[in-house]
Amino acid sequence: MHDHNGFPRTAKIVVAGGFGVGKTTMVSAISEIEPLTTEAPLTQTSAAVDDLTGVNGKTTTTVALDFGRLTLNESLTLYLFGTPGQHRFWNSWNHIVIGAVGAIVLIDTRRPTDCFAAIDFFESRSVPFVVAINDFDGLSLYDTAAVRDALDVDPETPIIRCDARSKEACRHALLTLVDHAIQTERAYLGG
Fold first, then answer.
1. For the whole model, what pTM was predicted?
2. Structural domain tally of the chain?
3. Cβ contacts of residue 187 below 8 Å, gap of 6+?
4. Which of 82, 115, 132, 180 could make an SS bond with 27 (beta carbons 3.0 to 4.6 A apart)?
């Protein structure tokens, strides 16, 4: 998986989802470098704008992006870009997704509709993605079949369970995405 010059290949992965779903947590849990985050404190003003239902203890929010890196093996390094979750910061998504091979859309089953915008965004741009149900403290309100029905995603789109705090669970989500992106590319190329 080296390019023609023998350099390791890299892939850009986007981590998206609704406000407070665990995007920064995921990038931080899996990154082998100290992640770059653009966290800003939630203020009284933002509390009036943002729905804090289900994330009442949240004190900061991503305003631009989160960035991390993970070397999967000697031939593939992933660069992780977490998107901001609030609607007013979505204008950055178009820039973040440029060159991405795929995306992980995190979902909190306590607030499932928060991921619709991310799913629509990647579907409209034909970016391969997987849906990762972020199991907070083992909280599992719905099984993957029910989530698939509710989201109405393509049957080929993987839906997995994940704890965004767990390095192993995040690694599994990334490997699932890389495999899905490869399969999608092969199908597109007709082979």
1. 0.81
2. 1
3. none
4. 82
